[in-house]
Design brief:
Chains A, B: Belongs to the SorC transcriptional regulatory family. Chains A, B: This is DeoR family transcriptional regulator. 2 copies of one chain form a homodimer. Chain A is 46% helix and 14% strand. In chain A, helix 13 links the parallel strand 9 and strand 10. The first copy, chain A, is an alpha/beta fold. Chains A and B meet through helix 1, strand 1 and helix 4 of A and helix 1 and strand 1 of B. Strand 1 of chain A pairs antiparallel with strand 1 of chain B. Chain A binds a DNA duplex (30 and 30 nucleotides) through helix 3.
DNA sequence: AACTATATAGAACATATGTAAAAAAGGAGG
DNA sequence: CCTCCTTTTTTACATATGTTCTATATAGTT
């Protein structure tokens, strides 16, 4: 316990230092002591909570969540977007914007970049500013998905993003899912396809979405998965996918019948990319994200407050 | 005004620096920028009051005053803020900070909280840190006061505080003072209004300001009381008010013509709330506070040294 | 597309702060 | 009154921070 005398002195020093902006040297001179005494007094005042430093901003909460996510899952970066009572659509847009911002700040040195597919990434690309950074090539990470909703296909997103960056893009002229494993094999032997996939596996940055195939899934929406398929996936223990590659609770690849038909990079390959940025919105995806994190596929996560909270809660 | 991204980044840096004790160098490395950027960010954060340094200035003198106030008026707690030669504005801010600090340390178990109106409470709310304590609801204790100075209205303060606590709030969609007692009756019969007032009367904690209607009164400033009104109040022996409820020297409610027009909780109801925290600054309010204490409306008092001294002197 | 104006980041320097070890001061026991 | 021990202060050094000036990037304009 400090004496009142000492307390008074600490308060005085703290005031001169923090409120009046004096240097420790000046304070020392005024009080006729050496500078280290002032330095130590200030430390003591902090220890005894005579000086308290508050960080006061609405973003404090989400920034704390970010830090916890980074520590807990060994992420390079996490960006948590506040939901503040907004509808899922608005939140999704905010997440996309935050993703676009993050990307634009971190794309500097990248020469090659890959992009997956989906509605979240589509929104991200649309939000991306035109900034004419030459010398970048964007690669699609999977093939196309038929004629519906072309604007969310990997190829299309690669093209749009390249346009905004002033760079170029490659196309993967193949379906994301071949009709048979045999057809896939044949397509994979084609140079145009093979070369692009090889390159896609060696990008500096990959931008991916994540999905939960069972809830509000775009794959189901566009007719790629029917109830039977879903039942099959469920039986195999699938909890999520990234670019048609399904994984289980622990993030291990699940060898479904789809797996042999998919034309796109594998989970293994994805894991080897230095910087994989996952962009996710919607609480129903929490379980899928958790599994992907366990599988170590993701280095950077851009997500909404709600998923962030659930991830941390689930992994207590 | 700073963008969301920038504020987020400043908060992140401030957190690492002030809470986690990282050096600027370490932070710079982590974020991939040069050290001066961090130095400048911290300066910016200080300028924008994202970082606030609070010096808890308690001396023998103020602690003694607190103890005496507690004993003499049977208070649960008293917090006396030293004036140390500061201007009234600075003192008011210190009182508001102390109030915010006290509240944040004592709000833990509260599920429902009420808040009155006024410039002191506004400052308190602005000083309150964002801390995301879910499961609390804030209720306004009175209606609104016209179009002027909306930021000090009970409704607005309830909203702002709820935002900082991560909780929810109710609104009282009614004027603080109806044009006639007849209109008041009709409004009071409306479910939306009635229900909120009912709830407001059962909060765990109420945060109130006190005023002296005759000196530097905000009520007069915003045109709610004119000279005639004041004369009338004087004749009735009014020495202060809390939330438009006027009381006399002994703290007894005064049945002025206003009383029947006010939409807000009554002094009786206020007295029944377990923990009523009064936050007051400015010597001219000493008499009003004394009366309120006599009326037993207040359990905790946060005030400046000067009022504290006068209260004790007056009640020797 | 080229230019200018404006902002921003980084390198290098200047200053301020933190800390270990030596010196001095204070205090207790002989 | 001295000696030894403890505590505090100071000196000198190591680090960390703030600042200026230059280089670079960005935005706006013709």
């Amino acid at each position: 316990m400090l004496s009142w005398e000492e307390r008074r002195s600490l308060v005085k020093i703290a005031n001169l230092y923090y409120n009046d902006g004096w240097t420790q040297e000046q304070i020392a001179k005024k009080l006729g002591v050496s500078r280290p005494v002032i330095s130590k007094s200030l430390q003591k005042a902090r220890e005894h909570k005579i000086i308290e430093i508050f960080i006061k901003d609405e973003t404090v909460h989400t920034v704390n969540l970010e830090k916890k996510l980074e520590e807990h899952f060994g992420l390079e970066d996490a960006v948590v977007v506040p939901i503040s009572g907004q509808t899922p659509d608005v939140v999704k847009l905010s997440v996309a914007q935050a993703g676009a911002y993050y990307l634009s700040k971190n794309i500097k040195k990248a020469k090659k970049m890959g992009i997956s597919w989906g509605t979240t990434l589509e929104a991200l690309v649309q939000e991306y500013p035109y900034e004419m950074k030459k010398n970048i090539t964007i690669f699609p990470l999977e093939g196309g998905l038929g004629r519906k909703k072309v604007e969310i296909h990997s190829n299309q997103l690669a093209y749009e993003l390249a346009k905004r960056l002033g760079g170029t893009c490659s196309y993967l002229y193949a379906p994301a899912m071949a009709e048979s494993s045999e057809l896939r094999e044949r397509l994979m032997k084609m140079d145009d396809i093979n070369a692009v996939l090889q390159e896609a596996a060696t990008v500096d940055i990959a931008l991916v979405g994540l999905s939960n195939p069972y809830v509000q899934s775009t794959l189901e929406d566009i007719g790629y998965l029917n109830q039977n398929d879903l039942e099959q996936l469920r039986q195999l223990g699938v909890v999520g996918d990234m670019g048609f590659r399904f994984f289980d609770l622990n993030g291990n690849p699940v060898n479904s019948s789809f797996n042999k038909k998919v034309i796109g990079i594998s989970l293994e390959q994805l894991r080897n990319i230095k910087k994989v940025i996952g962009v996710v919105s919607g609480a129903h995806k929490a379980e899928s994200v958790l599994a992907a994190l366990k599988g170590n596929y993701i280095n950077v996560l851009v997500l909404d407050e709600q998923i962030a909270t659930e991830l941390l809660y689930a992994s207590e």
